Amino acid sequence: MKIELHVWRQKDAKSSGRMMAYPLSDVSPEMSFLEMLDVLNEKLIKDGNEPIAFDHDCREGICGSCDMMINGQAHGPERGSTACQLHMRSFRDGETIYVEPWRAKPFPVVKDLVVDRSAFDRIIQAGGYVSMNTGGAPDGNCLPIPKLDQDKSMDAAQCIGCGACVAACPNASAMLFLSAKTGHLGKLPQGQTEQSERVRNMVAQHDREGFGHCTLIGECEAACPKEISTDFITTLNRDYLSSAAKSVIKG
Amino acid sequence: MTLDSKVPSGPVPEKWTKYKREQKLINPVNKRKYTVLVVGSGLAGGSAAATLAELGYHVLCFCFQDSPRRAHSIAAQGGINSAKNYRNDGDSIWRLFYDTVKGGDFRSREANVHRLAEVSVNIIDQCVAQGVPFAREYGGLLDTRSFGGAQLQRTFYCRGQTGQQLMLGAYQALERQIALGNVTMYPRTEMLDLVVADGRARGIVTRNLISGKIESFSGDAVVLATGGYCNTFYLSTNAIGCNVTATYRAYKRGAFFANPCYTQIHPTCIPVSGDHQSKLTLMSESLRNDGRIWAPKDAGDCSLHPNQIPDDRRDYILERLYPSFGNLAPRDVSSRAAKRACDDGRGVGPGARGVYLDFADAIQRLGKDKIQERYGNLFDMYERITGENAYERPMRIYPALHYTMGGLWVNYELMSNLPGLFVIGEANFSDHGANRLGASALMQGLADGYFVLPYTLTSWLADQKPNALPTDHSEFQRVEGDVKDRIAKLLRIKGKKTAVDFHRELGLIMWNDVGMSRTRQRCEDAIGRIRALREEFWANVNVPGSGADLNTALERAGRVADHLEFSELLALDALQREESCGGHFREEYQYPDGEAKRDDENFSHVAAWEYQYGRDPNRHREELVWDAVHPSVRSYK
Amino acid sequence: MTTSAAIHPKGSRQTRGRSGALAWMEDYLASSVGQKILVAITGLSLAVFVVFHMIGNLKMFSGAESVNRYAYFLKHDLGALIWVARAGLLTGFLLHVFIAIRLKMRAAAARPISYVCQKHAQATLASTTMIWTGLVVGAFIAFHLAHFTFAWIHDVPSSDGRSTTNYLDLKFALPDGREIHNVYAMVVSGFTTPWIVAIYLIAQVILFVHLSHGIQSALNTLGIVGKRFTCAAKLLGYAVASVIFIGNVAIVVAVMTGYVSEVP
Ligand SMILES: Cc1cc2nc3c(=O)[nH]c(=O)nc-3n(C[C@H](O)[C@H](O)[C@H](O)COP(=O)(O)OP(=O)(O)OC[C@H]3O[C@@H](n4cnc5c(N)ncnc54)[C@H](O)[C@@H]3O)c2cc1C
Ligand code: HEM
Ligand code: HEM
Ligand code: SF4
Ligand code: F3S
Ligand code: FES
């Protein structure tokens, strides 16, 4: 099949970028989207040009490296899938495809489609863990956890930290990412102990990084490759209120 | 030079206890004075960096991805073994130890494996406490399942994303230490060389992948946790970025590389669909719990729709060959059986490289809902990649390269022959012998990082004064110079082919000649062709751009250059190990029924290769000692 | 490189819960979630006001005396209370507007470069236009106050067409002989002028849109809905928004069509 690719090219963080057009013929529908970009890059290199830089690693939808807006949708048109899991059979022959980097102030473009997502790491640093040192853990079975809680926790824990939620949210809010972590830990007794501090600190860091707020638009949920539900944002809000209340009561 | 494995004396089950009793300690105030460089943030590196920082060491941690959470460990699906015996099905530390040694075809070091089985119990406790959401039963207790090669249900799992959840547990512990200021994290930083001064590992030289800056880091100890070298074969189930650079560079600086020919093929991968293929996707082996593997009995049936082939014209390969293990036979055994069927012309799908994995019976027995609950995400993944619905027609699977048991040689303390250089996780060679059992790589990575290295490193450092060299020391300057020269050289060639072209060619050589089954002839051929390809690479590769910014082509070229050198060592090791064992199958050494024929008389040893400048590497041996178990024929009939 | 102290001398970088009311406000109310909670609380209170306001206005259907008495009750019998209520309403309104606009500006700053191509997958129009529908509703309120409360917009023409009476001077004689403000006549007069009617009707549509997303969003913000109730929240949002819409439009339409008129 034939396609026309429009890709954002930007030399480095300081330069300004622009969309460049690359017509491609003989694309196979069996190719993954990234393999299509590989083919283009090989061509670019052979012509002595720099290849399009993009982040990728596992190519099976779990590492969260790949990040691109494809035709105006984070990770492309397919629901519950990352860019690397997208195959060319999802596109029409002759289609024009726009590829852009995630756009958010806390995710500055590093080059072409590569952005800096270290803000996510810093949000986790603010409290996305259980404070325990190695060793000294009680037996794994001494704390029974209802299967339903466990399942719910796992639903949230699946977040791959890709940033698609931010990219898709009209407010560039990272609430889905944040609430996935607080939802994962908050559902478990191990994580409950610190939940109050956790939500406050993580939200504070979220704001410091410059992400927007959430107004329940729901685009994040649609873009999330792990289909994490916005219900976790609601749960986060509830935890936040209870954190505020606790803080009043306990001083 | 003799290789001293430093295994403590005494009966095998008591060695680790004895080691811990006798290990030297460092007082908490003094720990702060030691700097430890941890290269790699996967299960092994991440857990080690976090734990060492908790103990009080000053830790610097490096990874090439943009966040430590993205290390390749995140991709592991199936599960993690532990000798908890929650099932009351007869499991014990001894049994896990024995199964792992036997699974490794009696080519691993007993003492290491026993220690692994011992700490496997702590890993589960540790991870639960961290908030890893392991699957549970309705009673609220932990669930387990059985996994390739084990008759016990000792595998703990988190849906199909066990590696991810364990990885996030380690990542979170690491981020906590970063927040506390105990670890300094260097993401998007690739280690390009090891600095050795006075015979001791002193630090590393890295390239900042964003700014291109070449930098030196110095420490009291260097820990390599950089994963395996599957990508030497180009197509594998590993992430695109996995590379041999760190371990190969260490090898070139004097660390011994052990058993590079031990590579594992995974039986349940999605077959190749065309030339554009950039990697292969693994589907968890757990699928084999309920799926049945078959190929048409008659080559003529291969082009039919699978559902049109009646049961009596199907050959349920593994059930026929290995009645007691059936579809759960170990990976190497299963992979070769599938390959043999394809070699007989009975393969299905594009290029006739595939056999069926059929769920029709399981769906009938358990219902579609149950199957969906167990494997839903795998079925989805399969459909996304192939466009086929596996609830309705059987999956097509084919073996692919998946794990590498070989790695840098380490002693019982996980230290290589270079003092100060520790190697953990998939990057070392120690625990899996010639073949790794399912769900035990995660176990090993975490065992090394959480529970072994923190003891052994402390014990070693206790004898050293804290004295990291300054990075303007002449040896650092020299190595930095080497690294810069190499990059400049790559950028100067401006040939006609891309690094990926070379990588793909190398992969073909490796898969065809040094892949699932090997012969003397083919290994020798491969070595010749690898040398030629390497020469062509240095004359004809095209790396555009400069070294002073983010240059993905340059990163790839550097890694391919190392694969091109390392692959020769792998082939050489395969050539010189004149027996079949585990993942290493030499066609000359097999029983009439096609089973691997081990040669305990001559090859019950670890081959540890020493780099020699301008000459063939030196093959050292570490004889394996069998105190606790006695090598037997590994039969799964 | 030096081997610096491993445990950071200043200790943990995270903030512990601080004490004191100011610190609490800074910690909780200044964050995006805290601010959002304020928008939700004020928004819901405004919505509650509009519901009661509508119920009061529906007295138009039970005759002039009924509305006029009600209005008189609110303004005179309640005494100072009405001023308390008005002050509360005004503060709520100003807070709502101020914080909502500030949040929106922060959100806009979080995406300095917009996409060349962007498609929404499941966002409703209402959810992406909250700020605009909000501003329109705000403008309407200003107009509405000018219209009825301050009576700056429009006067009632006398029957001979020569002079006009200000809305506020319309009087209604109670059976006991007291004269009170004739709200009934004011409303009827207001809604017989086509362009004013148009403004009201459009405003009701926009208000409906604002509330249809606003109420469910507010419930979420307050953490009141969970998995099972998400759907319920949505329904509740649409239901309240519809009731307000229907009630208000009914009054305007009834006057316009003459169903409710000057001479009962
Ligand atoms: C698809 C798949 C499924 C698997 N499933 C299972 C399973 O179910 N059960 C099981 O037990 N095992 C499984 N395995 C194996 C297991 O995942 C790996 O063996 C294990 O995770 C390796 O961990 P590691 O920490 O040693 O290395 P990795 O996780 O590979 O980490 C390597 C780290 O080193 C860094 N690094 C590498 N090179 C450099 C360099 N030059 N400079 C700087 N940093 C560098 C990387 O950034 C990364 O952080 C699976 C493997 C694959 C491929
Ligand atoms: C000038 C007037 C107004 C403006 C500018 C405005 C703006 C907004 C905005 C932008 C939001 C979205 C929340 C956010 O982005 O933070 C919002 C929410 C809301 N508004 Fe308004 N609004 C106005 C008036 C009103 C009025 C009069 C009502 C009630 C009748 C109201 C009820 C609500 C409700 C219930 C919400 C939901 C709060 C939430 O999302 O949590 N608003 N408003
Ligand atoms: C279409 C239906 C409406 C009618 C008939 C109506 C009628 C009135 C009348 C008659 C008054 C003046 C009362 C008096 O001064 O005695 C009034 C005041 C007011 N109305 Fe409305 N209104 C309507 C809709 C709305 C809406 C939708 C809002 C808000 C979004 C609103 C907000 C107000 C406010 C804030 C006041 C001032 C209250 C006060 O003085 O304390 N009204 N309305
Ligand atoms: S919540 Fe979903 S979209 Fe957001 S980072 Fe996690 S996986 Fe990606
Ligand atoms: S799209 Fe944005 S507004 Fe909230 S629900 Fe999702 S973060
Ligand atoms: S490359 Fe790993 S998720 Fe896409």
How would you describe what is shown here?
The complex is a heterotrimer of chains A (251), B (637) and C (264). Chain A is an alpha+beta fold. Chain A has 9 helices and 7 strands; from the N terminus they run E-E-H-E-E-E-E-E-H-H-H-H-H-H-H-H. Chain B has 17 helices and 20 strands. The two termini of chain B are 42 Å apart. The mean pLDDT of chain B is 94. By secondary structure, chain C is mostly helical. In chain C, 63% of the residues lie in helices and 4% in strands. Chain C contains 9 helices and 4 strands, in the order H-H-H-H-H-H-E-E-E-E-H-H-H. Chain C has helices at residues 21-29, 32-57, 64-77, 80-109, 125-128, 130-149, 183-190, 194-221, 230-256; strands at residues 156-157, 164-165, 171-173, 179-181. In chain C, helix 2 packs parallel to helix 9. Residues 159-165, 176-177, 180, 223-226, 228 of chain A line the site of iron/sulfur cluster. Residues 36, 39-40, 43-44, 46-47, 50, 96-97, 100, 103-104, 130-131, 134-135, 137-138, 210, 214-215, 217-218, 221 of chain C line the site of one protoporphyrin IX containing FE.
Please tell me the overall pLDDT of chain A. 96
For the record, give the distance between the C-alpha atoms at the N and C termini of chain B, rounded to a whole number.
42 Å
List the strand order in the largest sheet of chain B. Answer: 6-2-1-10-18
Provide a count of the helices of chain B.
17
| Main β-sheet description of chain A | 5 strands, mixed
The radius of gyration of chain B is: 24 Å
Give start-end ranges of low-pLDDT stretches of chain A: none
The low-confidence runs of chain B, each spanning 5 or more residues with pLDDT under 50, are none
Structural class based on helices, strands and sheet pairing of chain B: alpha+beta
Oligomeric assembly: heterotrimer
Major sheet of chain B, described briefly? 5 strands, parallel
Tertiary shape of chain A? elongated
Number of strands of chain B: 20
Tell me, what's the shape of chain B? Answer: globular
Measured as a percent range, the helix fraction of chain B is: 25-40%
Order the strands across the largest sheet of chain A as they lie in space.
Answer: 2-1-5-3-4
